[in-house]
Amino acid sequence: MKKWILGAGISVFALFILFKNFDIHEFDRLKGKIEWSYLFLIFLSNLWAFIPFSLRWYYLLDKKLSFYNAFVSAVICFGMNMVLPARGGDVLRILIAKRDANLTVPNVLSKLFLEKIMDLTMVVIIGVIAMIYLGLGEEKNLGLVFLSSIILIGIFVVLIAVRYFLSPIRRILGKTFALIKQEHFYQDKLDSHLVEFSAFLRGTYLLKPALLTIPTWLLGYAISYWLTTKMISIEVNYLEILLLMFMGAMGVAVPSAPSGIGVFHASIISGFLLLGREAGEGLVFATVTHLIQFVVLTSLAVIFYLAWTIVAKDSIPKTNDPNQ
Questions:
Q1: Where are the strands (E) in the chain, listed by range?
Q2: CA triplet 74, 78, 82: central angle to 5 degrees?
Q3: Cα gap 251→14, rounded to integer Å
Q4: Cα–Cα distance, 152 to 314 (Å, whole number)
Q5: Contact by Cβ (8 Å): 270, 12
Q6: Taken in order 278, 280, 284, 286, is the CA torsion positive or negative?
Q7: pLDDT digits 0-9 by tens, 118-175
Q8: What is the 8-class DSSP label of residue 27?
Q9: Cα torsion for 72, 76, 79, 82, to the nearest 10°?
Q10: Contact 309, 100 (CB under 8 A)
Q11: Following DSSP, what letter does each residue of 102-149 receive, concatenated?
Q12: Within the chain, how many helices (H) and strands (E) appear?
């Protein structure tokens, strides 16, 4: 509850600052310029983006969840993240994996953690490449990239330690839990999952999921951004799209209200300012992008959730009544 209140407070504050400093009449520029035909293409681009995203989840779960359920859970997750606080859609994805693949929650959580690391790594790489090729690689513009890189390095150090130094880590954790008289909890609930997670980090298990992260961002999310610019007649090239995508992704990483409202807008505006564009233009783009994604993702989530519940209901085995 406290986390939700904090996130909502950050979003409200960000929205207050935005609409206090920007002229609402900036939206007049949209009159007669919206190409509604692009809305259908945005629906399709979102469905396309879910394909590599779902394949990555399918391989992260070692094919124990069907691709269909991986796809459905991805659509539901994104849609619910638009309306639930603290990225509650991810919780639904965990529950679907637990129910349909008979996986334990710690197992799914560890794979979700790896997924987030892959996304963050890709986002940082995209940001660095876009800034360098757009001539924005000055030190003052790279603060967010440096901070993200430091966090990534710390995470990779932990993963390498789990991969190569599992035995001493298990001993340390065992003794630590023994000191607080929770040794049985560690042995029964955590140790086996730690061993399983370490095993997953070996060999080529991570290769396919890591490679699928590339088209997810460069050919999935980027296309949705580009189609939105076409819909509202804002001209930006592909490198600029990548920069805006980087800024938007880092913005929603900040604790905020559902769907990152407010902080997403502020991040996109910062991206437009970096490109030497008008802040008002950035506000219009951020608002339209957020609204369209809200409509598209929540609509798709409802459709796929209904389909999933129907299929799940039909898949429940019927038992014969012995009294009949």
A1: none
A2: 165
A3: 11
A4: 43
A5: no
A6: positive
A7: 998 899 889 888 988 888 867 666 676 777 788 888 888 999 999 999 999 999 998 9
A8: G
A9: -140
A10: no
A11: ---HHHHHHHHHHHHHHHHHHHHHHHHHHHHHTT---GGG-HHHHHHH
A12: 14, 0
Separation between Cα atoms, residue 77 and residue 94, nearest integer Å? 9
- DSSP category for residue 66: -
Give φ, ψ of 181 to 5 degrees: 60, 40
Q: What does the alpha-carbon distance between residue 185 and residue 271 come to, in Å, rounded to a whole number?
A: 47
Residues 84 and 65 sit within 8 Å (Cβ to Cβ):
no
CA-to-CA separations, 132 to 128, 135, 213, 267, in angstroms, rounded: 6, 5, 21, 19
Which residues have CB under 8 Å from 285's CB, separation 6+? 228, 229, 232, 234, 244, 268, 272
Q: So where are the chain's domains?
A: 13-315
Task: Give the per-residue pLDDT at 32.
Answer: 62
Decide: residue 25, CB within 10 A, 0-12 exposed, 13-18 middle, 19+ buried: exposed
- Residue bearing tokens 């805006």: 244
Task: Give the Cα separation of 58 and 69 in Å (integer).
Answer: 9
Q: Which pair of tokens denotes residue 2?
A: 């406290």
Question: Is residue 238 very low, low, confident or very high in pLDDT (cuts 50, 70, 90)?
Answer: very high
Please tell me the distance from the alpha carbon of residue 316 to that of residue 313, in angstroms, as a whole number: 6
